[in-house]
């Protein structure tokens, strides 16, 4: 029952987001002449294109036409890429998923591990050192880290490829085990950049969450009862801290989608972030709205997933109206 | 722990073996070779008339043939310096009629022969207004193209002028009529043929991974000689710096423009790269808008005044700016031209760098600092304007900052508007700007470019600043029609001196291109107007083949 | 760098250290302050922040050279650090140290303003939603949900790239307006838990109006998450501004901001690394200090560690 209500709310949210983005991109000043960079801005040509794509109709009518097309699975046509939006997105989404997935994996494995390790050795030297290192990495601007990593590991040391998602010489398509390996090799640096910064944040958060749990009554009671240290850690701290972790997991995806635009620019990674950015700059209406749609779907789905997982993991937290993933994450 | 390690070891060994096996290829001999180009812009389509994207042009050079092409001297007058390609020979049948005889060996890659019907079809497509080809204005002096028989095409012109042959052959790449006739002209931009083209050139299309790479393979039966390099690959990297890094890190073979002196220094320092300078076809100018910002019916309050323009031009130390940003990679142009053009002559009369005189002229015209804020003003109006620059160009943005400082030194305030490319285009087209730093690419022929940009013919088109001078236009027309090269040069000199005196813009730099190419390539011929035109003549000696050359795919 | 500016720098350093020391001394008396200073990193963070704020305010004293002046584009560009230009010059022969110091004004200013807007708006919305409950709460929180579902960088990119040439203040406002959603949720949760507390009931019983209750009783007690949000918020806004400037759509030239300094220097990353290194370090340092201070604040204000009521 609660799930159904949340689903309905989620759809409404996505709808609202798309409407907002649609309006924003259409009322932005300076109707650029849609076309790829380098194409001349011949006013006659511009007018012709505007007529062709019905951009002179009033906004509500354009909006209605867009929704109708969307309902039929037609995402529109991208002027800057000369392709249907669907194709352009279909090409880039796999790359974004790869990057996001690899970064999240690194983020949570490393972050969880560090956080738990730190919590087990609170305020002793390893904790302090790791604490400061994670603080530093967490504060770095990601694009700066990306530039440095690319320079050091890509160009100077040559351990990793300099940008790109694939090797066009040996593996333009993935048709062998070697090519899979090659793709992973290209994925390494961009995922490492995102993952490291994410891991630093996760480590800090996990440490705090686990320490907070440690001071709660039931854990103290268990310890006082003489239950062995390890059991205390494993059963109580981990399980409850895991709940917070699940919420963060659901909330991490959206950042990766659009926050990755900087990483994708530096590493020339053909993902959705860069696509969205270029689309905004060239005022490619259809492409911008479509990427906003996808991004918000992912955000909302992530939230929903986090809530569902929380509900399963801890019945106490099953949602009454109002309390949900976000407030737990506080 | 001990139980797991042999397993892990085996897995790692397997991976390494597989990895090792894959990389070894079997190709040997002189027809192997892979050329990887770190390209910056991805083409929207590969159909030649539908786009003027630079990379599309480079790829088009390999896929489609022209009737004939310019030689290394890039001389566009007459027809002696042209190399036959699709046309085996040609002759003049009267003063306005040019007849081409096609090479009977020419074939499309699906087996069909190339015929004069293709030539006629191509001309009709290029000049069709529904297709809207950017090359259409360049073909306006050709009246018609018809086929006399299957291997003879006839070009008819409106009038006689020295570059008739150039116009007939240079702009069009001949297209397969039998494959494109059925595609409606207004859909050519998005036609599937543009993403999977079939041509008649030295290379075949192999594959295109969107936003990643594009591959061409050599056609071993090409009638003008089998290309030595088997695979041509374009890697798309939207960021120039990353592209340069790829070449330096030996993950790409060619970067046809290094652009900044820093990059050139790095390329020279890289042990596997050789550096090739060649004359550039781009010049850049700070163009003044002679009409009011946003209202082309009124003159601009500052720039309509010729003397003020001249003063501003004299206030800029062009030579120092070129030295600072480009070091040896650019030259101060003696007018609106690039060093590619044969009419380049440093002796042409230009305005000197003289800040004292600039200040005197401004003072004389009432532009003084009345209110003591460091900026000149007149009747309460400060001598301030905006410089419009696209965010895509590193060099132009650098120049904008340097110019800002130079103007500040004589009491002129320039604010920089760094805007996105399509917005800049839109503003330029509608006259909503004060000044803008514009880069123009020259064709090998000065004629059409100059007319389009600096005369009344370009109003509403590329002449964004709306400059016109009747004397200049007269001299340009005479120069274009001049029968001999010497006469043309003299007329061009006079024309350039005229436009320099009027200062419709400050001609900032002409870019010298520097290409970085992997040392293993021999016979690296780079034609200044199109670096990829002669790729089919590049070779790799068999003893210099490396891993990526030997791959069999 | 003149002798005077070295002196000023020295004074700023000592000053910052002294301020932190004085706060610590004073703080030892109170439980909360003691918890704040418990971690040495927090003290360092506070010290660095104070130092940077001092030199940002006293910029002309500490950095005598003009940050936008191009000293000699031909001969003095991309020089390594030396006695005249202590952090070197950039690609336009401008002094990097001056630009870092004046850039601190811009970046910290935008950070502070943006965070102020975000936290104010977020607290207000969260408090109102939590206080009134039911309908108002539902409506406001759905709005917040939409706001959270908006991909933030995306919206910012649109706002900034489409309305080109935004002035400083508008940029800060735009960033602030897209960053308040998380804070509102935090504040709401806090307010909900305070709802039934004695002082609220008492205040209402005494006839205090809703607005008064919210502003004078509820918000001050919900201060903990608000303050921590603010500290973190400045860091986030700063990073966002740096990202936007790096992409070319943030602070306009020639005005220095740490983000656009990195963008300018990116093309000579190999030959003149100091042009990107120092602004990058500056950003990292500030964000790090803010995070450290936020950690300390969280420790200090954590109600679980408090003995009793607010």
Shape verdict of chain A: globular
User: Within the largest sheet of chain A, what's the order of strands?
Assistant: 1-2
Give me the count of strands of chain B: 23
The average pLDDT of chain B is 88
The main pleated sheet of chain B reads as: 6 strands, mixed
Tell me the radius of gyration of chain B: 26 Å
Q: Which residue ranges of chain A are poorly predicted, with pLDDT under 50 across at least 5 consecutive positions?
A: 34-41, 318-330
Residues in β-strands, percent of chain A: under 5%
Question: What is the structure about, briefly put?
Answer:
The complex is a heterotrimer of chains A (330), B (553) and C (310). Chain A has 330 residues and is mainly α.
Q: Topology of this structure?
A:
The complex is a heterotrimer of chains A (330), B (553) and C (310).
Chain A: H1 2-27, H2 43-52, H3 59-71, E1 77-78, E2 83-84, H4 85-120, H5 125-139, H6 142-156, H7 177-214, H8 217-224, H9 229-259, H10 261-267, H11 272-281, H12 285-313, H13 325-329
Helix pairs in contact in A: 1-12, 4-5, 4-7, 4-9, 5-7, 6-7, 6-10, 7-9, 8-9, 9-12, 10-11, 11-12
Chain B: H1 4-23, E1 34-39, H2 54-63, E2 68-70, E3 82-84, E4 87-92, E5 97-102, H3 116-126, E6 142-149, E7 152-157, H4 164-170, H5 177-180, E8 203-209, E9 213-218, E10 231-236, H6 240-248, E11 254-255, H7 261-269, E12 273-278, E13 282-288, E14 291-292, E15 295-299, H8 306-314, H9 318-326, E16 330-331, H10 355-364, E17 377-378, E18 381-382, E19 384-390, H11 394-409, E20 413-419, H12 421-430, E21 435-441, H13 446-454, H14 470-481, H15 485-502, E22 505-511, E23 513-518, H16 547-550
Parallel strand pairs in B: 1-10, 19-20, 19-21
Antiparallel strand pairs in B: 2-3, 4-5, 5-7, 6-7, 8-9, 9-10, 11-23, 12-23, 13-21, 13-22, 14-15, 16-22, 17-18
Helix pairs in contact in B: 8-10, 13-14, 14-15
Chain C: H1 3-27, H2 31-36, H3 40-57, H4 59-62, H5 96-132, H6 134-149, H7 152-162, H8 168-177, H9 181-194, H10 198-205, H11 210-221, H12 223-246, H13 258-265, H14 274-301
Helix pairs in contact in C: 1-3, 3-5, 3-14, 5-6, 5-8, 5-9, 5-12, 6-9, 9-12, 10-11, 12-13, 12-14, 13-14
């Amino acid at each position: 029952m609660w799930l159904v209500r949340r689903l309905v709310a989620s759809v409404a949210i996505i709808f609202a987001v798309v409407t907002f983005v649609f309006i924003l991109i259409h009322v932005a000043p300076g109707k650029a002449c849609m076309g790829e960079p380098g194409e001349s801005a011949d006013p006659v040509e511009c007018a012709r294109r505007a007529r062709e794509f019905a951009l002179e109709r009033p906004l509500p009518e354009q909006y209605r036409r867009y929704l109708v097309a969307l309902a039929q699975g037609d995402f529109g046509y991208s002027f800057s890429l000369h392709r249907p939006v669907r194709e352009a997105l279909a090409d880039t989404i796999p790359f974004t998923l790869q990057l996001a997935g690899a970064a999240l994996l690194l983020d949570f494995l490393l972050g969880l591990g560090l956080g738990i390790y730190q919590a087990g050795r609170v305020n002793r030297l390893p904790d302090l050192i790791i604490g400061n290192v994670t603080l530093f990495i967490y504060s770095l601007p990601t694009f700066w880290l990306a530039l440095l990593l690319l320079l050091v590991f890509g160009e100077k040391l040559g351990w990793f490829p300099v940008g790109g998602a694939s090797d066009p010489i040996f593996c333009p398509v993935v048709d062998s085990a070697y090519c899979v390996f090659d793709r992973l090799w290209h994925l390494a640096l961009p995922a490492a950049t995102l993952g490291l910064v994410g891991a630093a944040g996760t480590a800090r958060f996990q440490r705090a969450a686990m320490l907070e749990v440690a001071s709660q009554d039931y854990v103290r009671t268990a310890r006082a009862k003489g239950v062995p240290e390890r059991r205390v850690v494993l059963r109580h701290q981990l399980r409850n801290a895991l709940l917070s972790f699940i919420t963060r997991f659901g909330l991490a995806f959206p950042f990766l989608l659009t926050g990755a635009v900087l990483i994708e620019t530096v590493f020339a990674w053909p993902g959705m972030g860069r696509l969205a950015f270029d689309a905004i700059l060239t005022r490619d209406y259809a492409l911008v709205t479509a990427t906003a749609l996808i991004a918000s779907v992912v955000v909302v789905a992530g939230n929903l997933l986090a809530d569902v997982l929380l509900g399963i993991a801890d019945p106490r937290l099953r949602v009454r109206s109002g309390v949900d993933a976000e407030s737990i994450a506080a | 722990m001990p139980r797991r390690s042999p397993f892990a070891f085996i897995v790692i060994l397997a991976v390494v073996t597989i990895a090792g096996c894959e990389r070894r290829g079997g190709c040997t001999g002189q027809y192997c070779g892979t050329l990887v180009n770190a390209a910056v812009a991805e083409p929207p389509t590969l159909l030649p008339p539908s786009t003027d994207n630079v990379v599309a042009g480079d790829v088009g050079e390999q896929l489609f043939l022209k009737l004939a092409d310019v030689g290394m001297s890039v001389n566009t007058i007459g027809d002696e310096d042209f190399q036959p390609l699709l046309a085996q020979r040609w002759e003049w049948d009267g003063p306005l009629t040019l007849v081409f005889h096609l090479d009977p060996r020419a074939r499309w890659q699906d087996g069909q022969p190339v015929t004069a019907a293709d030539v006629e079809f191509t001309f009709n497509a290029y000049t069709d207004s529904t297709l809207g080809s950017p090359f259409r204005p360049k073909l306006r002096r050709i009246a018609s193209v018809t086929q006399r028989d299957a291997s003879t095409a006839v070009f008819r012109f409106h009038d006689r002028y020295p570059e008739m042959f150039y116009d007939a052959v240079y702009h069009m790449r001949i297209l397969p009529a039998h494959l494109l006739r059925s595609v409606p002209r207004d859909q050519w931009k998005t036609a599937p043929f543009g993403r999977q083209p079939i041509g008649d050139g030295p290379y075949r299309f192999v594959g295109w991974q969107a936003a990643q790479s594009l591959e061409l393979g050599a056609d071993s039966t090409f009638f003008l000689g089998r290309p030595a390099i088997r695979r041509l690959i374009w890697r798309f990297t939207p960021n120039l710096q990353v592209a340069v890094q790829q070449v330096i890190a030996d993950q790409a073979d060619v970067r046809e423009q290094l652009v900044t002196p820093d990059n050139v220094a790095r390329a020279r320092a890289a042990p596997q790269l050789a550096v090739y300078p060649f004359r550039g076809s781009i010049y850049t100018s700070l163009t003044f808008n002679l009409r009011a910002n946003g209202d082309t019916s009124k003159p601009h309050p500052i720039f309509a005044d010729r003397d003020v323009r001249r003063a501003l031009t004299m206030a800029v130390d062009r030579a120092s700016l070129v030295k600072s940003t480009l070091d040896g990679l650019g030259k101060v142009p003696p007018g609106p031209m690039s060093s590619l053009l044969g009419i380049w002559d440093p002796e042409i009369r230009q305005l000197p760098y003289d800040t004292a005189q600039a200040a005197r002229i401004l003072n004389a015209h009432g532009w003084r600092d009345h209110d003591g804020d460091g900026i000149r003003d007149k009747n309460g109006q400060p001598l301030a304007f905006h410089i419009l620059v696209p965010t895509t160009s590193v060099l132009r943005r650098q120049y904008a900052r340097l110019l800002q400082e130079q103007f500040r030194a004589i009491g002129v305030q320039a604010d920089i508007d760094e805007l996105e490319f399509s917005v800049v285009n839109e503003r330029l087209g509608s006259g909503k700007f004060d000044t803008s730093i514009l880069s123009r690419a020259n064709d090998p022929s000065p004629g059409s470019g100059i007319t389009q940009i600096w005369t009344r013919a370009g109003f509403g088109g590329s002449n964004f600043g709306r400059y016109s001078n009747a004397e200049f236009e007269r001299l340009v027309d005479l120069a274009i029609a001049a029968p001999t090269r010497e006469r043309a040069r003299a007329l061009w000199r006079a024309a350039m001196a005229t436009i320099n005196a009027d200062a419709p813009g400050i001609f900032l730099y002409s870019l010298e291109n520097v290409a970085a190419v992997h040392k293993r390539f021999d016979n690296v011929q780079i034609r200044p107007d199109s670096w990829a035109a002669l790729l089919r003549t590049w070779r790799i000696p068999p003893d210099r083949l490396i891993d990526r050359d030997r791959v069999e795919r | 760098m003149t002798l005077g500016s070295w002196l000023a720098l020295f004074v700023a350093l000592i000053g910052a250290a002294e301020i932190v020391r004085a706060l610590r001394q004073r703080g030892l008396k109170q439980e909360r302050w003691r918890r704040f200073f418990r971690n040495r990193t927090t003290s360092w963070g506070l010290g660095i922040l104070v130092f940077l704020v001092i030199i940002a305010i006293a910029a002309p004293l500490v950095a005598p050279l003009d940050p936008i002046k191009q000293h000699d584009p031909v001969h003095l560009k991309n020089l390594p650090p030396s006695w005249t230009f202590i952090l070197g010059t950039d690609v336009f022969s401008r002094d990097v140290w001056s630009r870092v110091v004046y850039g601190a004004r811009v970046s910290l200013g935008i950070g502070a303003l943006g965070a102020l807007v975000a936290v104010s708006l977020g607290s207000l919305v969260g408090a109102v939603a939590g206080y009134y409950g039911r309908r108002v709460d539902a409506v406001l929180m759905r709005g917040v949900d939409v706001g959270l579902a908006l991909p933030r960088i995306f919206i910012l990119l649109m706002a900034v790239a489409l309305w080109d040439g935004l002035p400083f203040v508008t940029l800060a406002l735009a960033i602030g307006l897209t960053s308040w959603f998380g804070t509102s949720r935090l504040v709401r949760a806090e307010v909900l838990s305070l709802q039934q507390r004695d002082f609220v009931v008492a205040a209402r019983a005494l006839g205090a109006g809703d607005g008064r209750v919210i502003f004078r009783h509820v918000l001050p007690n919900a201060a903990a998450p608000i303050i921590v949000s603010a500290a973190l918020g400045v860091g986030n806004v700063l990073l966002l501004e740096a990202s936007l400037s790096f992409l070319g759509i943030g602070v306009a030239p020639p005005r220095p901001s740490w983000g656009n300094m990195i963008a300018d220097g990116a093309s000579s990353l190999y030959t003149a690394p100091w042009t990107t290194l120092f602004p990058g370090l500056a950003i990292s340092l500030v964000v790090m200090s803010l995070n450290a201070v936020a950690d300390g604040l969280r420790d200090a204000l954590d109600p679980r560690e408090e003995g009793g009521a607010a």
